[in-house]
Amino acid sequence: MTEFWESSFIEKQTMWGFEPTDSAIVTKDFFIEKNVKDILVPGIGYGRNAKVFIENGINVTGIEISQTAIDLARQNGIDISIFHGSVTDMPFDNKRYEGIFCHALIHLLNRQEREKFIQGCYNQLKPNGYMIFTTVSKKAPMFGTGEQLDKDYFQTKDGVKMFFYDSDTITRDFEPYGLVEYSEMDEPNKNMKNKPSINFIMVKCKKEL
After folding, report:
1. Pick from 59, 63, 132, 126: which is nearest to 98 by CA?
2. 20 contacts: CB under 8 Å, gap ≥ 6
3. What is the distance between the alpha carbons of residues 65 and 15, in angstroms, rounded to a whole number?
4. pLDDT tops 70 at residue 2
5. In angstroms, rounded to a whole number, what is the distance separating the alpha carbons of residues 205 and 113?
6. What pLDDT band is residue 30 in, cutting at 50, 70 and 90?
7. Once rounded to an integer, what is the mean pLDDT over residues 5-25?
8. Which of 136, 121, 208 is nearest to 170 (CA)?
9. Which class for 175: exposed (0-12), middle (13-18), buried (19 or more C-beta within 10 A)?
10. Nearest-5° Cα angle at 136, 51 to 20
């Protein structure tokens, strides 16, 4: 996984542009409404989604597997704490956060890794904190393509392994961790207007007292 993302960022650099995803904008509004001031962003990349939180007075800490992506974030003015490593090796600090936002990462993990990652995020939430994940759904255009590795789990022609969620698997994976709600969201390819939007599921969990 490290090698794949490192070579992707070396080759494609700021491949998604700098406009934040719609889900990051929605989450920013939600965090402001809930007075969340300190968040963790696993899989921060080069910081395109972090910016929208930082610009609205929210303190952001990141985790990123690619050193090249971290360097790109620095070059583009993202001057925050970013841990270099895999989210499957969490925790990188013993801090607890008021919120966690993770976009388009969890579906790249296998079942054991997903479970460990969700647990790791939950452990780093303060009581009454929220964690929000976005993940590809079975309605996404690439579902069912490539080599099938397991139920709803495929390897694309580029070698990326992806798990595709639906309502049953969302409930199974997130209900033990304070699942509040989930909703579908079409994410447009803002940097590639000619590409179709991708159907995501946005998952919201709350850590009760």
Report:
1. 126
2. 28, 48, 49, 51, 52
3. 16
4. no
5. 18
6. very high
7. 67
8. 136
9. exposed
10. 15
